[in-house]
Amino acid sequence: MAVRDILICGDPVLKRKAAPADPTDPELKTIVKDMFDTMYENRGVGLAAPQIGLSISLFVINHDWNRDEGKEKDGVEEVFINPKLLKAYGKDEGYEEGCLSVPEIHEKVQRKDTIDIEYTDLKGKKHTETGVTGLRARVFQHEYDHLHGILFIDRLSPVKKMFVKKELKRIIEEME
Ligand SMILES: [Zn+2]
User: How many whole angstroms from 23 Cα to the centroid of ligand 1?
Assistant: First the structure.
């Protein structure tokens, strides 16, 4: 088990657009394993490679593991390599999000509730899925944003964003 350090908001890697990942790279298996370890250790439901300092197009999700009881292997582990958000549609939905790179902040973010997606898994198999909904669609969109240098706080209204940034500055200063 290798838990890696998570980059915190303000690090330039989190602002960068991630480069395509090579699904045949044998190193990817270790990275993915470490990403799950890191995600579970920090009680997350998703983690994108840039959050551990790797600017490549890859994220992992386990959106329904039982975080309260710490049963770390339940739920479904999913790996998304070079994912594409083909379409976001349906109704706008507000849902309270947090992020392992944005300590202590939780805010309601508006996103579409249905998505069509494309990605490659760790075995190199390509998938296309339509009509993805629920928490899985929510977490996918949050992690997908990470690959484009976008944090959930960037999606808040300008006033809310200003407030959150001030709060965040204080939190990060206290952590140092
Ligand atoms: Zn995040």
Answer: 22
pLDDT at position 70 is 58
Q: Report how far ligand 1's centroid is from the alpha carbon of 8 (Å).
A: 10
Looking at the DSSP bridge assignments, the partners of residue 116 are 87
Rounded distance from Cα 128 to ligand 1 centre (Å): 23
> Taking the domains of the chain in order of start, what are their residue ranges?
12-175
Question: Which tokens go with 91?
Answer: 């109704």
For residue 98, how far is its CA from the centre of ligand 1 (angstroms)?
7
Annotated catalytic residue 174: no
The contacts of residue 105 (CB under 8 Å, 6+ apart) are 98, 99, 153, 164, 167, 168, 171
Selection from 73, 69, 67, 81 nearest residue 144 by Cα:
81
pLDDT in tens, 101-121: 999 999 999 999 999 999 999
Choose, from 78, 143, 174, 176, the residue flagged as catalytic.
143
Question: Could you read off the pLDDT of 54-98 as tens digits, one per residue?
Answer: 999 999 999 887 776 655 567 889 999 999 999 999 999 999 999
Regarding the domain with residue range 12-175, which homologous superfamily does it belong to in the CATH classification? Peptide deformylase (3.90.45.10)
